[in-house]
Fold:
Amino acid sequence: MRDLFNLDNQVVIITGGNGQIGQEFSRILIEYGAKVVIFDLKINQEFLEKYDDLYYYNVDITKRKQIEDALVCVKEEVGIPTTLINNAALDFPPNSTGDVTGPFEKISEDTYDKIMEVNVKGIFLCCQIIGSEMARNEYGSIVNMCSIYGMLSPHPEIYDYKNVDGEEWNKPCLYSISKAALLNLSKYLAVYWAKKKVRVNCLTPSGVFNHQDSRFLENYNRSIPIGRMADVSELDGAIIYLVSDASTYYTGNNLIVDGGWTAW
Ligand SMILES: NC(=O)c1ccc[n+]([C@@H]2O[C@H](COP(=O)([O-])OP(=O)(O)OC[C@H]3O[C@@H](n4cnc5c(N)ncnc54)[C@H](O)[C@@H]3O)[C@@H](O)[C@H]2O)c1
Structure:
């Protein structure tokens, strides 16, 4: 059984690898034997220096040329990529401000473009450039990071406490739309590349604990049967499964790790 989850010889590209989930995924994938390549806008030198098998490239996933150039370097310096984790995204935690969290009717087109550019076009480009490389090599796994808010509407009552002094705060619909797009992109590409032995799936977590404010936590935790947010390490099993040969017959699917959120 241990061999089933072994990631020796795997070269994993993870976008947004410097974020909360990206760092945890990098850590656990390296522990299971993979070489991990982070594509991100920013570097965390201290984190990078912790692991011999961790590599970093400064890549904006909305820029085709940057992804293409970085892929050439990865192939030369690290190896042929076997996994792509599309993890980078713009999210809007409860302390976010601006028109994106205001009333639906007032969200500007600029805001729409900015979020779709990263959360959808960025993933589209990474799949085109890195996914097609894996298809040429006839081996690979793509994991698109979705969210329960890409499957369901956010529950407005969770955020009601933020509606003070006549200001309206909404969990942005743009985040939900962008994540919903990944559910179909994953199914489409799973079919498109099935014979090329590239599997494409979504991983859908509910909220991960990151020291959110107590009012938010109180409301949010009531919405989860398990009664608390996930610890980031509770996604480890799912990512190891999706990246490893334990999931060779799993494609076009959505692995939901949500503490029961979508069960009621
Ligand atoms: N944290 C949660 O509770 C939660 C829940 C469900 C789904 N998710 C999803 O999981 C993924 C990771 O979430 P997180 O909380 O770790 O995010 P995070 O905000 O901590 O990290 C996101 C990373 O993406 C990078 N990034 C942003 N724009 C980029 C670009 N144009 N090019 C390259 N890199 C870019 C950022 O620099 C950052 O390092 C996201 O897709 C998110 O939507 C998170």
